[in-house]
């Protein structure tokens, strides 16, 4: 039996026999463990974004956004001629005239001509008009072959079909302006729009509240307190008179003669 390195042995040490009969000191083998595998690299935001179709990086994203902005304004840029004989650079007078005529015909085909009735109906589809205001609008846009007689015939049809009505316009305008304007201002606006005096009077009579109450509500929203001195009083008077309220209504408000139930008010119209 062979002994290996007896001088290095320690008391109480265990020994084992080797393959060739040698006596070797026993050393405990490390426990078997599963091999440590390097973890797969976690997908970064960039990798996931790329898989989802997003730009590869911030630089690519900014470049793509810039390209989109360029494409969005490309329609407003003047297209450069593809050849020296393009329309703008043609030196041949006959060729230039031919191309100009062709271009004008092509431009005219893009927008088919609409009749006066169609143009009137399209305008009324957007908002209310009086007959006077719509007539002036159509006359300004008269095309070749159209006359003012044609405009009057189209307006007659609009009134017959119920699309055009001065009475409806006056009632809507008076109702919408009643909370911010006095009777004088509303009547003046209706007169400028071409509403007849009797039609305007009927529309004014249908306003729910009298003028002094409407004046009080506007004053309450704008000021809320009685004037403390002469300067403040003149300021409030000027404001209400400019809005078209009569002096009697303004005087009733500033002297506290108008009593209205308190309610929540907004700053709309100020």
CATH superfamily of the domain at 115-164: Winged helix-like DNA-binding domain superfamily/Winged helix DNA-binding domain
Order of helices and strands: EEEHHHHHHHHHHHH
**Parts with pLDDT < 50 across at least 5 consecutive residues:** 40-58, 73-78, 80-87, 264-270
* Principal-axes shape call: flat
The percent range for helix content is 40-55%
Tag the structure with descriptive keywords.
270 residues, mainly alpha, single chain, Arc Repressor Mutant, subunit A, disordered C terminus
Give the topology, please.
Elements: E1 2-3, E2 15-17, E3 22-25, H1 45-51, H2 58-73, H3 93-110, H4 116-126, H5 131-140, H6 148-160, H7 166-177, H8 183-192, H9 197-205, H10 211-222, H11 230-242, H12 247-254
């Amino acid at each position: 039996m062979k002994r290996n390195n007896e001088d290095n042995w320690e008391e109480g040490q265990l020994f084992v026999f080797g393959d060739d009969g040698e006596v070797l000191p026993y050393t405990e083998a490390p426990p078997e463990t599963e091999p440590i595998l390097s973890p797969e690299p976690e997908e970064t935001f960039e990798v996931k974004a790329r898989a989802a179709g997003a730009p590869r990086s911030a630089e690519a994203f900014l470049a793509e956004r810039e390209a989109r902005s360029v494409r969005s304004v490309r329609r407003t840029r003047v297209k450069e001629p593809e050849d020296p004989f393009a329309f703008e650079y043609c030196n041949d007078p006959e060729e230039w005239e031919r191309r100009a005529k062709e271009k004008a015909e092509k431009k005219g085909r893009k927008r088919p001509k609409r009749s006066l009735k169609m143009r009137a109906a399209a305008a009324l589809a957007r908002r209310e008009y009086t007959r006077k205001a719509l007539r002036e609008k159509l006359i300004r846009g008269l095309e070749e072959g159209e006359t003012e007689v044609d405009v009057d015939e189209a307006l007659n049809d609009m009134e017959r079909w119920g699309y055009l009505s001065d009475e409806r316009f006056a009632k809507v305008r008076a109702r919408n302006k009643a909370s911010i304007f006095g009777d004088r201002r509303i009547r003046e606006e209706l007169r400028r729009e071409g509403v007849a005096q009797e039609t305007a009077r009927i529309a004014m009579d249908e306003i729910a509240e009298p003028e002094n109450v409407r004046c009080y509500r506007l004053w309450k929203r704008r000021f809320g307190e009685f004037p403390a001195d002469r300067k403040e009083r003149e300021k409030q008077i000027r404001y209400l008179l400019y809005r078209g309220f009569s002096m009697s209504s303004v005087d009733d408000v500033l002297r506290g003669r108008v009593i209205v139930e308190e309610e929540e008010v907004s700053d709309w119209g100020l």
